[in-house]
């Protein structure tokens, strides 16, 4: 029987509805397994490459859980860390040359660039999904190619508006606006008061891609339609570009070259009234030895990403998932390590230690105490649940991964904001770039 996209969506909707009903009724799915393990190969040892930390609790608990795995199985695991910008090219090289880390925590739809170079993880993903309330839609889109899981979603470094409450209130806003017009209004007032806003417009893997895709989709623009035809050169895209061009007037200087760490540093230096970021800024201030930063942490609050004229959330968050490469000598050990790390006994304490820095892809972890014990974490809880996916509204694959890796959307907005190109010309140029990948 052929498996069309429409049938996939119908099937997915039916499964999701059934799973939701079971959860509401407190009924366990009859095919759920409570335990599973993949017996590691004799003499197995693993090497994991992951992105470098922004939140110390993430790294601390990840390493503690890894040590627990080694104690339980006898399998040593070497963990290497790379800057966010370096993970994607290193993963691509590993796939192409056929050697490198056994497991890599990559970004977005990286597995779809080289699916034939990866170990299928369907049995593991289905086990975890059955046990922990099901995978959110975006997680399935990122992790699966057809019926096969080629990546194991870890979650997303969620993005929210991070702002200084006192300065926002001084600007005349009791709470932070949740729509794009209000967002523009508060940016203007903050700049007038000497507390400008600032978001990355450089090649930031997370920050730039996240907020700019959110704005593009919020105005109704998108890279491709459901048939993967490039539709970027549209009135909706131009409207989004004109909006960001106006917003950019109220930014602090320098954002055109900002990467992921820059807004953290500038915010903590007391130079920003608001930005869009993960929870890492507040976490750093709260846990600092500097009394001034500890005091700043009390004034840092988080708000939802702005909703555009389409009238509903259109968020993109920095999604990360594990890939096991086909050249590994120890595929069972690799899958057993991932199973261990994703189980509740390890995942929930890790998520709590990181203060919800990574929003979960499995529905059951919405009940993690991090969302109630740490009130400033709560706005990040549903990031993966509500997010769209890179390449929206088309299918994920080599083209969507390539256009993300080439920063086509980010460059388009940067060109329009800076005046390098008019909004109309920036949209046309970006569409031509995208068509090279979507041919």
Do you know the CATH topology of the largest domain?
D-Maltodextrin-Binding Protein, domain 2
> Mind telling me the CATH superfamily name of the largest domain?
Periplasmic binding protein-like II
Note the main sheet: 6 strands, mixed
Oligomeric state, counting identical vs distinct chains: single chain
Mean pLDDT: 92
CATH class membership of the largest domain: Alpha Beta
Structurally, the number of domains stands at 2
Number of strands: 11
Radius of gyration: 21 Å
Helix-strand makeup class: alpha+beta
Q: Please report the number of helical segments.
A: 19
Low-confidence stretches: 1-32
Our estimate of the beta-strand percent is 5-15%
Report the end-to-end length measured between terminal Cα atoms.
28 Å
| Silhouette | globular
N-to-C order of helices and strands: HEHEHEHHEEEEHHHHHEHHEEHHEHHHHH
Protein name: ABC transporter substrate-binding protein
Organism: Acuticoccus sediminis
Subcellular location: Periplasm
Keywords: Periplasm, Signal, Transport
């Amino acid at each position: 029987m052929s498996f069309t996209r429409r049938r996939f969506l119908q099937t997915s909707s039916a499964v999701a509805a059934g799973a939701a009903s079971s959860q509401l009724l407190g009924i366990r799915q009859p095919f759920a397994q409570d335990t599973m393990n993949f017996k590691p190969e004799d003499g197995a040892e693993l090497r994991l490459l992951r992105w470098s930390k922004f939140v110390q609790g993430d790294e601390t608990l990840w390493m503690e859980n890894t040590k627990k795995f080694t104690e339980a199985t006898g399998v040593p695991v070497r963990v290497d860390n790379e800057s966010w910008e370096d993970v994607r090219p290193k993963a691509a090289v590993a796939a192409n040359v056929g050697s490198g880390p056994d497991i890599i925590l990559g970004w977005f739809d990286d597995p779809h660039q080289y699916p034939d170079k990866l170990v299928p993880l369907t049995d593991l993903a289905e086990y975890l999904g059955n046990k922990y309330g099901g995978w959110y839609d975006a997680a399935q889109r990122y992790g699966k190619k057809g019926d096969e899981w080629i990546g194991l979603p870890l979650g997303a470094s969620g993005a929210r508006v991070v702002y200084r409450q006192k300065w926002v209130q001084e600007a005349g806003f009791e709470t932070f606006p949740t729509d794009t017009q209000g967002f523009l209004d508060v940016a203007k007032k903050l700049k007038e008061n000497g507390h400008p806003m600032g978001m990355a417009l450089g090649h930031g893997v997370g920050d730039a891609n996240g907020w700019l895709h959110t704005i593009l989709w919020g105005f109704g623009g998108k890279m491709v339609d459901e048939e993967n035809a490039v539709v970027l050169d549209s009135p909706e895209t131009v409207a989004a570009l004109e909006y960001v061009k106006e917003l950019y007037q109220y930014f602090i200087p320098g954002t055109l070259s900002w990467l992921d760490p820059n807004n953290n540093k500038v915010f903590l230096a007391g130079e920003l009234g608001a930005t869009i970021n993960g929870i890492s800024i507040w976490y750093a201030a709260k846990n600092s030895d500097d009394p001034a930063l500890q005091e700043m942490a009390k004034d840092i609050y988080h708000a939802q990403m702005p909703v555009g004229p389409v009238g509903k959330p259109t968020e993109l968050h920095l999604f990360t998932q594990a890939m096991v490469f086909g050249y590994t000598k120890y595929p069972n050990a690799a899958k057993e390590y991932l199973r261990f790390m994703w189980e509740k006994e390890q995942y929930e304490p890790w998520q709590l230690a990181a203060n919800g820095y990574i929003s979960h892809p499995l529905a059951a972890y919405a009940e993690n105490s991090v969302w109630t014990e740490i009130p400033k974490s709560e706005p990040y809880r549903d990031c993966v649940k509500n997010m769209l996916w890179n390449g929206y509204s088309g299918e994920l694959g080599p083209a969507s991964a390539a256009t993300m890796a080439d920063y086509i959307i980010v460059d388009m907005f940067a060109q329009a904001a800076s005046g390098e190109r008019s909004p109309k010309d920036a949209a046309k140029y970006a569409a031509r770039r995208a068509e090279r990948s979507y041919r």
